[in-house]
């Protein structure tokens, strides 16, 4: 199976980046309560001792509504550098493996996405650590205030390695994640009983949700261990609220299985699965709305509320090329009017 990797050339690079960033910001903010529940369940704080619904109730009773948006600003700030590095790295890797027609095999495209994700995570990992610490801290005994304060305090008290604690699990987790995506996409034609080039936008959205759901389930134990490693610190009350104490990555896996059972590696998976559909639905919808506004500003469509092309506009031209064409015709028309005016006199 091969895929064609094509971007909308009617948008500038900055417009594509802003559309992705704003869509991610909005979808993350709306689904933040599910993310907070998931992380508290993964780390094992007292909020997450019960089930999915009970965790919601405990957070609300102890921290109020604001507790569901702890760490959200850090998470949203992380989006912009993460998106920029991810898109840049992905494009470079994909272009290296494209054939002369612009096609790339499915597994190579997924591998490129995995490698790009690792590169982006490396740059932004300290912000992810800060997000975890802000979410799991007790709001009545606050240790951290904001992203900059959190990162600087961790660096001063625990050193630079603490800001990258658990990063190896991001790399390891990318393997089952990529395998899960590949397995789903290789069997989509069997699921729908038709070839992939006939899939509707709704089918592609469902396909994406299924692929992410399977991939995240396979890689979830790595994320659970990673979150515990990010949260644990001997300098914090109750070791950061982690439900098991450990000395390293393998010891963390062993302590979880020994003290909590194998299934506890998937604590918080319910919140994660529920989050997938609204998150990607809002991400896609918001991105498309931003894209329409940009296409309208660039002159390709007649209204930001529809995709109806502007009459007489070549949709294959890039935004800068289209601007040059407009400038040319504007100058030509202006010159024609001046010539006509001169002939009268």
TrEMBL record:
What are the TM regions of this chain, as residue ranges?
162-185, 205-222
| Family recorded in the similarity comment | Belongs to the mitochondrial carrier (TC 2.A.29) family.
One of the GO biological process terms: transmembrane transport
Q: What are the alphabetically sorted keywords of the record? A: Membrane, Mitochondrion, Mitochondrion inner membrane, Repeat, Transmembrane, Transmembrane helix, Transport
What's the protein called, per UniProt? Solute carrier family 25 member 43
Q: What is its main location?
A: mitochondrion
Q: Which InterPro entries match?
A: MCP (IPR002067), MCP_dom_sf (IPR023395), MCP_transmembrane (IPR018108)
Q: Name one GO cellular component term.
A: mitochondrial inner membrane
Per the record, the domain of life is Eukaryota
Q: Where are the Solcar repeats?
A: 15-96, 104-191, 199-293
